Each structure stands twice: as C-alpha cells, then as structure tokens.
TrEMBL record:
Name the UniProt record assigns to this protein: Putative metal chaperone, involved in Zn homeostasis, GTPase of COG0523 family
Segments forming domain CobW C-terminal: 252-337
Xref: PANTHER family: COBW-RELATED (PTHR13748), ZINC CHAPERONE YEIR (PTHR13748:SF46)
A single GO cellular-component term on record: cytoplasm
Origin species: Halomonas beimenensis
InterPro entries assigned: CobW-like_C (IPR011629), CobW/HypB/UreG_nucleotide-bd (IPR003495), P-loop_NTPase (IPR027417), Zinc-reg_GTPase_activator (IPR051316)
One Pfam family here: cobW
Function of the molecule: Zinc chaperone that directly transfers zinc cofactor to target proteins, thereby activating them. Zinc is transferred from the CXCC motif in the GTPase domain to the zinc binding site in target proteins in a process requiring GTP hydrolysis.
Length: 338
C-alpha cells in the first residue's frame, strides 16, 4: 500500500492576462531542487491550450492542462477531480497551480483549504504576477478580478520591469503599499526571474476569505464548460481545428494545425504583427526554421525556440470588438504555410 500523501506544498501563481505567469513558472522549473518531483497544473481561458506548450515538462516535472474556462468557477468540480487524479498518479513533492489570467482566486483557495484536501495539501504563499504598467490602465483598475488577484496574494512579483522607468516602478510600489491589505512582499522578477527561495521557502497563505467572487464569476459557478461535452477533434492536413470561447467579457479564438504542416517563419510573423497590438496572443508553431513559441502581450515580444512537437497552436484573446474576423485570419494563416 502506498504511503499516504501528506502536507504537499501547493503554490498558486496568479496574475492577469499577459502578466508573465508562464515565464515565472519556467524559471522556477529551471531552478528546481534536484531530487524533488513537481506537478504543474495550468488553467487557461482559451480552449486550445497553449501554456502547457510554453511550460515544458521533464522527467521530474509533470505538466497538466485544464483549458477552456475558469477553474475558479466553470471548472471547479473538474479541478477537484483532476487534482485527486494528479496527486494519486504522480505523487509529487510539490504542486504549482496557475489559474487563468481571468480567474478569480477565491474559489481555488477555498478548494485547496477545504475538507477534500485537508492534511494532503499545505497551501503556501500565493504569488500574484504583475506587469506594473497595468496600474496605469484605468480598464485594469476597474476590473474586480484584477484587484482581487492582488488583494488575495501574499506576495507580488513585478515582471516587465525592463519596460518601466524607475519612477514608474516607484509609483507601482506606492500604489501596492497604499491599496493592498496585509502588507504583502513585493519583489522585482524581470523576465520571470523570481528567486526560487522566495517561493520554496515561503510560509503558509494568510487566509483572507472575506474577498468573495465577483458576480460575473458567481454566475458561472457550476455551469459546465461547453467544451467538456465535446470529444477533442484532431486536426488534419489542410483542415485546422478552430475553437471559440467566450466568458467574463473576453473572447478567445483558437486554432490547431496538423504537426506535419509547417509555416514560413517570416510570413507568419508578418501576419501576427498585423493583428491589433492590444490583443493577447500566444502560440507554438512548426516553421521551416524549426519550432518556435510566440507569447505577446503588447505586440513586440520576440519569438523563442520551443520544445513542443505535437501540433501548431494559436490563441488570440480580447474583447469581441477588438478581434479579427476568424475566417479571414484563418485564410491569412493558411497562406503562410509552406
């Protein structure tokens, strides 16, 4: 009989769309203590599932994805079952959970501290990843989910600091000190490089259950995500799979292409550069020059090599009025194939 699982440290890494959560998790994995086995559970708003391709697994790190909804509300029951299975099968020494950038963490934290995982999981400090430039955007500040992600965190990791002036960083620190309860720690993490000791050596989460889910999330709680009723369709050469999702004021457009199809790298990047800069865009692509990953927040991030080899994928997320016509975009992407 296997030894019972007890007090497995679990580290939620929260943050709004495009804040740099995946980069921070990749950095943690790269500096993982030798001898530890990790499990990483990634939730994505989009239905295609890109972040699992951006965070490569290893023999000592297993990565699981829950795409197509918010695990804090739409996928809450699915999350509990997925966690039970993941813990039973993989028996990790440590668990990292990345909720969707649109996810409100209250439901997740309640589950992790609830009866189902009592004595099994030990909830450690919640780290919220923040691009300081978001604090200058009135639309972000008006988002209850954005503010609550910060308010429920024990610490704030400031990413994209190379794109912010010294005065901008000072202003961000002042805002956080004035607006957030509990005096969370604040540390710079350019390109996701948060010192791993800050996470692994963290204490328990300081419970703030007074922050309930906003009405938009409560309305989705218990509602089964539509994609869960569908069998995943495999793309065929010349016939990519297209998936659309919508919730919480955002729409996702996603595609998957057969792994034998390859893109012209230059033509593909030109096509993606033509999309509106405010759109959240991420993908992995097989190109004539090798596999690459694209992870754009403000329309200028440089592509990087990718270890993903299963298929090419693209996800575009934004308010409905900012998105391109999906049929026209699919045709432009098809013209980029070799």
């Amino acid at each position: 009989m296997p030894t019972p699982l007890t007090d497995i440290p679990v580290h939620p890494i929260t943050g709004f769309l495009g804040s740099g959560k995946s980069s921070l998790i990749r950095h943690l994995i790269e500096h993982k203590p030798e001898g530890e086995r990790w499990a990483v559970l990634i939730n994505e708003f989009g239905r295609v599932g890109i972040d699992q391709a951006l965070v490569a697994g290893r023999d000592d790190v297993v990565v699981r994805a829950l795409p197509g909804g918010c695990l804090c509300c739409q996928l809450a029951t699915v999350l509990q079952a997925a966690l039970v299975e993941l813990l039973r099968r993989e028996r990790p020494d440590r668990l990292i959970i990345e909720p969707s950038g649109l996810g409100h963490p209250a439901g997740l934290l309640d589950l992790l501290q609830g009866e189902a995982f009592a004595g099994v999981l030990a909830l450690r400090e919640v780290v919220a990843v923040l691009d300081p430039r978001r604090l200058e955007d009135p639309r972000a500040l008006a988002q209850a989910t954005f503010r609550d992600q910060l308010a429920l965190a024990d610490g704030i990791a400031l990413t994209m600091t190379d794109l912010v002036s010294a005065s901008g960083l000072d202003a961000a620190r002042d805002w956080l000190a004035d607006e957030l309860p509990g005096d969370p720690w604040v540390e710079e993490a350019p390109h996701g490089r948060l010192p791993i000791a800050r996470v692994l050596g963290s204490g328990r989460h300081r419970d703030r259950r007074g922050a309930g889910q906003p009405a938009a999330h409560r309305a989705l709680t218990g509602r089964r995500a539509a994609w869960l009723d569908l069998e995943a369709e495999a793309p065929r050469p010349g016939h990519p799979v297209f998936l659309r999702g919508e919730a919480l004021g955002q729409v996702s457009l996603g595609w998957r292409w057969h792994p034998d199809e390859a893109f012209d790298r230059g033509a593909l990047l030109d096509c993606l550069d033509g999309l509106a800069g405010e759109l959240r865009l991420k993908g992995v692509f097989r190109t004539g020059a090798g596999w690459m990953a694209v992870n754009r927040v403000h329309g200028h991030e440089t592509p990087t090599p990718s270890e993903w080899r299963r298929d090419s994928r693209l996800e575009v997320i934004g308010p409905a009025e900012t998105l391109p016509d999906p049929r026209a975009l699919q045709a432009r992407l098809a013209a980029c194939l070799l």
